[in-house]
What does this fold into?
Amino acid sequence: MSPWTGFAPPVASRAAGALVVALGLGACDRTPEAGLLDAVHARVPERVEVHEIASGTTFGQILWARGLEPSDHHNLLLAFGEQANPRRIRSGTEVHMRWRGDPERLARVEVGLDRDRTVHLERAGGGWRSSTVTIATTTDTLLAAGEIRSSLWTAVVSLAELESAPSADRDRVVARLDRVFQWQIDFSRQLRVGDSFRFAFERERRPDGSMRTGRLLAAELVNRGRSLYAIWFRPEGDDSGDWYDLEGQSVRRAFLKKPLRLAYISSRFTNRRFHPILRTWRAHRGVDYAADSGSPVEATGKGVIARREVSDSYGRFIDVRHANGYLTRYAHLRAWASGTAVASSVAQGQVIGYVGMTGMATGPHLHYEMHQGGRPIDPLAVDLPAGDPVPSADRERWRRERDKRLDLLLRLIGPETFRVQQAATGLNGGGR
It folds into this structure.
């Protein structure tokens, strides 16, 4: 007997039971169709516009072009001004504008100040708040060694360890090596084929692999079989640090070897030289460096501008007076650099002018003189005094850090290995 005998089940239950029976027996010969719903168009949660600041265009003009309310425009510029000057944004800078909501309104703006910093502007109530976000970096130490086959620049930029680095970063590594050893060797005339080098270079790198900052921790340059060392160390109370040899003596000198980075000697200091314009024999009391017009000229030592004049022979020239009776002269300049008025102080390595061919010059070059006690001396022959050694109070810490950084170099192949390679290849180490 059915359990439902004696009373009638609810209609809904009876219908459900019939459906189950029908499905179970296969009475339905097709699958029911659910039907289609009308399409629903959802608004994109955020729309991004990217605008580039062209030459002659300002950040404010880009905001106006997007139809912002005057109050929004004003408040955005005020908020941006808390981080940077809106009138000094470089052309080519990208401005990202993010629009949200319904009705749509500007919710966020991002402006790149440079490769490392971006200003973020976000709507906050009735105004805007701003912040500067600095891109995160990682730090590593590059260890590399190489041999001179033609020039230091070619040897360094060709290193396998720098293969993935941007060309500008490879140039910066060469420049660091040049700056460290510039007081001990003139790369334009003393470097020889067969010389070798090894170095440890600490880098702060961006996510794209480019270098934000870099510091040469330790380096060895072998020139004609003689090893020159430079170990970076920062004495107590010194904000920038300096480089020292293995005995703790400064590699820095009172004067740079030369006032130009990329140049070669076209005429030396001599008592008798045939003048190409005057067509007569006369003394040449300086050194001429041939270089491209406009090349930056650096003060070879710390001092004060004593003269800045134009003459028939020197053309546009500048004199820098140094301690201990030294004076240096830089002649045939195309232009003086800013900050070089008479009586102005200049630092070693500061750009004071640009190569030209003013005065009696047949082509662009720099005429460089050095005087001591009022008498001209040969800049290439003078024995320049060294900088201060590691302070005695820092000697113990210096020895510890020196040994750690020297150990980095010793992990690399050294000059002995390169000499074996030279013998195997028949390289004789002749001059350039």
